[in-house]
UniProtKB/TrEMBL annotation:
Residues 2-113 form the VOC domain. Transmembrane segments: none annotated. CDD domains: VOC. Pfam families: Glyoxalase. This is VOC family protein. Gene3D superfamilies: 2,3-Dihydroxybiphenyl 1,2-Dioxygenase, domain 1. InterPro entries: Glyas_Bleomycin-R_OHBP_Dase (IPR029068), Glyas_Fos-R_dOase_dom (IPR004360), VOC_core (IPR037523).
């Protein structure tokens, strides 16, 4: 089994698609204004956006996008006027991460963990 697709609700899918394209995702299904699917530039994962009348309330799932070029991507996105809640920061769990939200408020983390993503020193045998 492999997690390969996540779908996010959006009140403005066209705006969300522009945002995720700025992050580097490529549009592969265009059924806007109600639906779109994009693929990540690395790996085989896809992300889709679908139109909703009202966004969900409360705690939302967090999407993580890993890049070896975290600091460069952060700078590129800052220059493109993307707002971040946290600049790239080394975390105690051995990841370096930056936090932001997409246009619909979905939390995102851009990070680099390398081998520590799946094999931290405290990994269960």
């Amino acid at each position: 089994m492999n997690l390969n697709q996540v779908t996010l609700p959006s009140i403005d899918p066209e705006n969300s698609v522009r945002f995720y394209q700025l992050l580097g995702l490529r549009l592969i299904v265009d059924a806007l204004p109600r639906y779109a699917r994009m693929e990540c530039p690395d790996g085989a994962s896809t992300l889709s956006i679908h139109l909703v009348e009202k966004l969900p309330q409360g705690e939302l799932p967090t999407l993580y996008f890993e890049t070896e070029r975290l600091d460069e991507e952060y700078q590129r996105l800052k220059e493109a006027k993307v707002n971040f809640d946290l600049a790239p920061t080394d975390q105690s769990w051995l990841w370096r991460e930056a936090r932001l939200k997409d246009p619909d408020g979905n939390p995102l983390i851009l990070f680099f963990a390398g081998k520590n993503r799946k094999n931290p020193p405290w990994r269960v045998a």
